[in-house]
Amino acid sequence: MVPDMGTAARAETLGPQTTSRPLRAWQQAALASYEETSPKDFLVTATPGAGKTTFALTLAARLLARREVARVVVVCPTDHLRLQWADAADRMGIVLDPGLTNAVGPVRAGTQGYVTTYAQVAGKPMLHAARATAVKTLVVLDEVHHAGDGLSWGEATEEAFGRAARRLSLTGTPFRTKADERIPFVRYVEDGFEGQGGLMSVADFTYGYKEALADNVVRPVVFAAYTGTSRWRNSAGEVVAASLSEAGTRSVEMQAWRTALDPKGQWVPHVIAAMDDRITHLRETGMPDAAGLVLASDQDDAREYAKIVRRVTGKAPELILSDDPKASKKIEKFNIGGARIAVCVRMVSEGVDVPRAAVLAWMTSYRTPLFFAQAVGRVVRARGPHESATVFLPAVRPLLSLAAAMEEQRNHVIPPPKSQPDEELEALDLPPREPREGEMKQWEALEADARFAHVLHSGTAHTGEGTSAGAPLEAEDEDFLGIPGLLTAAQTAELLSRRDDELRIRIAASHRRGDDEDGFMVVEDHPEEDAPGRGWRDVAELRREINRLVNRIAAKTSQPQAVVHTQLRQSVPGPPSASASVDVLRARRERLRTML
How far apart are alpha carbons 382 and 384 in whole angstroms? Predict the structure, then answer.
């Protein structure tokens, strides 16, 4: 049973190195639940934005202080999250190395552990097993649903950490999108699934969206759905037209949806204009740094959407692509900077913390419950009272169903095997833009327009055709758009509907201006941004400085860099720089300075 959430959070003293930041009520309750039995495995399911990282690091600090563990290993999905975890650990007085690679054997001296990724673990599971069993280790499995059984990541995770002393699993979405995938270290029980039987995961502690909303931990979400008429040409050369919200068959709906997302049409710029308008109102009514995220299906669309953002808003967005080596820096810069909009594919869909992002434009063909929950989770983290999140999305049945179910508690459900393929595929199954060699073109987007459809609130669609109370809205009411408790969902819908014609005029004007400038925001490398900080950032800077000094000495003496490195290790013994302690690295730096 989940402990009571009603008590107020109090600051706790966790030892001389830990933070004095007050814990939320759910975090204290989860800690109390854990310490009742000190289990080997503990699964926490908490809504995105609730503070799972703080909970995990607080528990780690307690276990380290009591010497119940001597090492902490955090496993997360992406490299960017490695840095985010390491920075959060620094603030808690725990030094975790986010740069430890599979090429380095031992954990660096002077740290309490390291942060790695599921992909790294899959690369050398036995190496991580050796690290996790050399001393008593707490393994934190962040977004553990990535380790579904049967996947290479899941098998490697089980092999690497099956003998660890303690395991803490964290997720905001405790389910997978494919059948028959079990998550390692998670308990399952038999449960009915559509009357056919199945398995369901059991969390040791659950903190859902409803509880988080009541505690003001997350923002309330307003879903603004936009419909429109799409026109495309099929493989027979016929021109087909259909409304997003009245498409009829699933096949027609999917093709209308994909056509709407095509950058050449009017649906995308119209919704981006509505999104920008929403950001402006948030900035004028108490959230001066409000920002928005545009989620694209692929990198080609993302680049085109970035051009549209520049043309419609007059300001360049941050373009964040997964294969960009500067992607992590761009996310960090967007998080602390003043840019209004970031356009991305999957980089900020899960785990990445951008608290000022309060608006999301769903311009992707993904429609899985997992991805939807993760993406919406990027804009629900509350920083103060009277903040709300707005999600702009196509008015198609799959997405509206996911939005209506936003407040439901979800568990990881494994359906029983089916003799026939599941007709409700999780991914949007559409013909490719360009045909394969020798094949006819199956689909070609022609055009799509957009118009406001409704606001979805508590499962009810409000179209904006009159308020629920029947009272007309005054001009000053527009200042309260989206502030929870001040306007009803019907009033919010009426305001969005009222502005729809204004946006259409604005889009037409932007097209007349043309699209001469792409206007991408360029993120330059600033050496001062890499200045040494605390913990692992000190180490990273020391390594860079040592490499610079080695290069200078090699150039000065006409020796290969490898020879200089060998001489350095002879003068200052110890492991290679990748696993050396801070003291060894500092001593080597001083030695190199004397050699210049």
Answer: 6
Pinpoint the residues of the chain covered by CATH 3.40.50.300.
219-406+488-523
- Contact indicator for 110, 71 with CB cutoff of 8 Å: no
Q: Which amino acid does the sequence have at 438?
A: G
Terminal CA-CA length for the chain: 66
514: burial class by Cβ within 10 Å (0-12, 13-18, 19+)?
A: exposed
Pairing of strands 413-414, 198-202: antiparallel
Which DSSP string corresponds to 79-135?
A: HHHHHHHHHHHHHTT--EES---TT--SPPTT-SEEEEEHHHHHH-HHHHHHHHHHS
Instruction: Please name which of 305, 281, 307, 311 lies closest in space to residue 293, comparing C-alpha atoms.
Output: 305
Give the domain 25-213 fold.
Answer: Rossmann fold (3.40.50)
Contact 222, 233 (CB under 8 A): no
Which part of the chain is CATH 3.40.50.10810?
Answer: 25-213
Task: Count how many residues are written for the chain.
Answer: 596
pLDDT beyond 50 at 250: yes
Q: What CA–CA distances, in Å, run from 216 to 18, 47, 56, 384, 433?
A: 25, 13, 21, 8, 44
Q: Which two tokens stand for residue 366?
A: 């993904």
Check if the beta carbon of residue 174 is closer than 8 Å to that of residue 203: yes
- CA pair distance 575, 581, nearest whole angstrom: 8
Whose tokens are 């063909």? That residue is 365
Interior angle at CA 471, CA 467 and CA 476, nearest 5: 95
Place of tokens 């069993």: 133
Are the beta carbons of 111 and 575 closer than 8 angstroms? no
Residue pair 144/118 in contact by the 8 Å Cβ criterion: no
Structure tokens belonging to residue 21 = 């930041």
Residue type, 283: R
On whether the CB atoms of residues 55 and 133 are closer than 8 A, the answer is no
What fold characterizes domain 219-406+488-523?
Rossmann fold (3.40.50)
Measured CA to CA, the distance from residue 450 to residue 441 in angstroms comes to: 26
- The per-residue pLDDT for 489 is 61
pLDDT digits 0-9 by tens, 357-411: 999 999 998 887 778 887 888 888 888 777 788 999 999 988 988 888 764 544 5
DSSP string, 34-45: HHHH--SEEEEE
- Nearest CA to 312 out of 337, 278, 275 is that of 275
Calculate mean pLDDT across residues 70-84. 92
